[in-house]
Design brief:
Helices cover 29% and strands 29% of the residues. By secondary structure, it is α/β, with parallel strands linked by helices. It has a single domain, classed as BirA Bifunctional Protein, domain 2.
Amino acid sequence: MNRNILLKDLSVKDYKETWDYQTELLQEIVDVKIDNRRNNNQKTTKNHFLFVEHPHVYTLGKSGDFSNLLLNEKQLAEKGATFYKINRGGDITYHGPGQIVGYPILDLENFFTDIHKYLRFLEEAIILTIAEYGIKGTRSEGETGVWLDVGTPFARKICAMGIRSSRWVTMHGFALNANVNLGYFDNIIPCGIKGKAVTSMEAELNRKVDLEEVKGKILKHFKTLFEVEAFVVS
């Protein structure tokens, strides 16, 4: 089992270009696994972790409802935003500057073969990270992601999640609202859940956070939870 992860920070990158890149990485891993099984090989599969910030974009998951996007094409253009229907789970969400997006492309056979556990570990990495800033995150039953004040009229989401897996290889991931402009969420019904608010670390702390510092804390907790041997910058 290979528990090293190749780490790459893409900085600011177009959503579609990043989606294509994820797909290439996933397919490379899947091809090795197919070859191993067909030819009784023992080639090691790679694991990747991408950090990225996207220009303004709305993405709709495969089970999502298009009506949860509250803008038409002209309004999208006016806001400088794009829209994609994509192949992850979940409904609609927004990505934009000041948001920390993480895409683990892992061969879960290097770690554990349990998608439910994988999602819970992703959530836990974020919960532990924001706790270091005094923000108490938690889970909301039946709703993937990280939330604040669940069970109260003030419940609000701080981190969205949606993944896809093929032959135990993951793609897509999480989007943590750090210093993001929350006004862009007013143009959607986030994750298709009516009456639930969205928040950010900046809104909760009343100050901007250092994105590189937050990324470092995410990796620290991810490494512990997934028992990663090392992150190798690629």
